[in-house]
Design goal:
This protein is of the alpha+beta class and 194 residues long. It has helices at residues 4-7, 11-18, 107-114, 127-133; strands spanning 22-27, 30-42, 71-76, 80-87, 94-105, 152-155, 166-169, 186-189. It is 14% helix and 29% strand. β4 (80-87) and β5 form a beta hairpin. It starts with a helix and ends in a 5-residue tail after the last strand. It binds a DNA duplex (13 and 13 nucleotides) through residues 40, 42, 49-51, 56, 58-60, 74-80, 82, 84, 97, 99, 118, 122, 126-129, 171-174, 176-177.
Length: 194
DNA sequence: TCTAGGATCGGCT
DNA sequence: GCCGATCCTAGAT
């Protein structure tokens, strides 16, 4: 399991290092493991695309201002749950959004949650889809991912992303964030199998 | 209170 | 590739 020190680093470093890591979810109906292939960094009060931009402190973003190594979950478009991992800590207000992954364990359970007709590649290739595949809800906001007892944690199983497969570029869906929309804070592992 | 808009998805053309 | 669903959140009033 990744320790809290892993998350207590600059957000861009954490985002980069999260690629290829295993995200494990133990829920009442079973266990699911996915390999992270796409993440985005959100850099706190100075980042117009970030929920803590300009020091915004509301109930929703309270978790982002807390300790590193916790899950920040929010509802988007009133429909989908997005999973973030709080980084840095000490009130930095920064986090990494988990956008895409490949199912490694618990494929049957994921399919049950996502529906029988969903294409294989579409099981977990977006933040909302991943949330559904892992049965993430607002009740999971604030979970400590450095505590196996939370049922949500990350692990390094030794799989490495080839340097040439690593890509970075502008974040998705943040056109309204001005110049920050073009910051290369999206990291992905191209063509990496689960 | 009211209103605008959103870190998306899936169905349809 | 386009477009509507859907409802919560944040900021304004």
């Amino acid at each position: 399991m990744l320790r809290r020190e892993f998350y207590q680093r600059p957000t861009v470093e954490v985002a980069h290092d999260l690629l290829g890591k295993l995200l494990v979810r133990r829920h009442r109906d079973g266990m699911v493991g996915v390999r992270l292939v796409e993440v985005e960094a959100y850099l706190g009060p100075a980042d117009p695309a970030c929920h803590t931009y300009r020091g915004r402190r509301t109930r929703r973003v309270a978790t982002m201002w807390g300790e590193a190594g916790h899950a920040y979950v929010y509802l988007i478009y009133g429909v989908h749950h997005c999973l973030n991992l709080v980084t840095v800590g000490g009130g930095a207000g920064e986090a990494v959004l988990v956008r895409g992954a490949a199912v490694v364990h618990g494929r049957d359970l994921v399919r049950r949650r996502r529906g029988p007709r969903v294409a294989e590649r579409a099981l977990t290739d977006g933040p909302g889809k991943l949330g559904q595949a892992l049965a993430i809800s607002l009740a999971d906001d604030g979970l400590d991912v450095c505590d196996r007892g939370s049922g949500l944690w990350l692990a390094d199983d030794g799989v490495r992303i080839r340097p040439r497969a690593r890509q970075c570029g502008p974040r998705v869906g943040v056109e309204s964030a001005g110049a920050a929309a073009s910051w290369p804070l999206r990291f992905l592992a191209a063509g990496e199998p689960g």
